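Lab meeting notes turned into a lecture example. A postdoc, R.K., suggested we walk through two folding results consecutively so the class can see how the record format repeats. The first protein's sequence and C-alpha cells come next.
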Amino acid sequence: MIKVLFVCLGNICRSPMAEGMLKKMVNDHGLESKIHIESRATSTWEKGNPPHPGTRKILERIGADYKGKVSTQITETDFHEFDYIIGMDHENIKYLNTHAGIHSNKIYLLRDIDSNTKDQIIPDPYFSGEHEKTFLLLEEPLKLWLEKLKNE
C-alpha cells in the first residue's frame, strides 16, 4: 500500500483539505486498498481541533468525509511509515527537511508535481479566508498526484 501524508502549519485548512480531496478521488477510482492518505501539522497550535469551517464547507460540498479528523503534529514515526510527505509551502518543506533525517527523499512540495507550477506554494487561507482559492489550487496537482500513485 502506498502511504501519502499531507502537511501544513496547523493541519486545519490546507492539509486536511488535500487529504479529503485526494481520499475522495481515490475512493471514486476504487483505489482505497492501494492508497492510504492522512495529514499532519508542523506545529501544535491547533492540536486536537477539527478542520477549519472553511475547509469543512468545501469537503462537505464535494462529498469528502472528514469525520473524526483532528489536527495532529507530524512525528518521527510518520517519516518512517509514509512513502510521500507532501508540504504546502516552503516553510513546511524547511521544517520537514529539518526533521526527516534519512527520509528527506520522501518530501515534496505539493505543486512540484507539475513542471508549470514548480516551486509554487498553496497559500494558507487561515487569515485570508480564501478556502475556495485553496480548493482551486489543489484540484489539478491532486489529479496529477493520483495519476502518479495509480501508476506505481
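The second example is placed directly after the first for contrast:
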Amino acid sequence: MEFLKKVLKISAIVVLAVVIIYLIVGLFFLGDKKSSKYGSFGSMVSPGTRGSIQSTDETEVNMDKVLINLRSGQYKYMKADMTFKMPNESQKEDLVKNMPRIRDSILRFSASQDSNILKTPEGKDEFKKNLQNLLNETYGFDIEAVYFRNFVLAE
C-alpha cells in the first residue's frame, strides 16, 4: 500500500510538471501569432533591413552585423553593422539580391585588416573607401557611401 501511494505521488508530480511545461511552451513560443506576421518568437526582416534601425532613404541597404577575426593588431575582433547608399533603387535591388556573395566578400576583405589602422577615424574612412572600391570592381556596384551603424573592436 505504501508503495502505491509513492507511485501515485510521483505520477501526480510528473503530470503537474508536464502541464506547467506545456503552458510555458504554449504561451511563450506558440502565443498570439497575430502580433507579427512571422510569429511571436523573434521576427523576420527583409534582406538589407534591420528591425527598428531602418533608413527612410529608399536607396540605402542595411547589412546586418558582421563579426570578423582580424589579421593583426591590438584587437582580434571587429563587429560592424553597415549601410550602403546606392545611386538608385535598381542598384539597391541588385545589391539585395546578391547580398550573400557581397557579405562573403566583405567578410574575407575585413579579415585581412589590421586593427591598429581600423581603430583610428582615418583608418575607418580608408576601410570604407576600400570596401566601396572592392564592391565596385568585383560586382560593378557604384556605392555612393558606406555608413557604420555600429562598429566595435575587441580583444
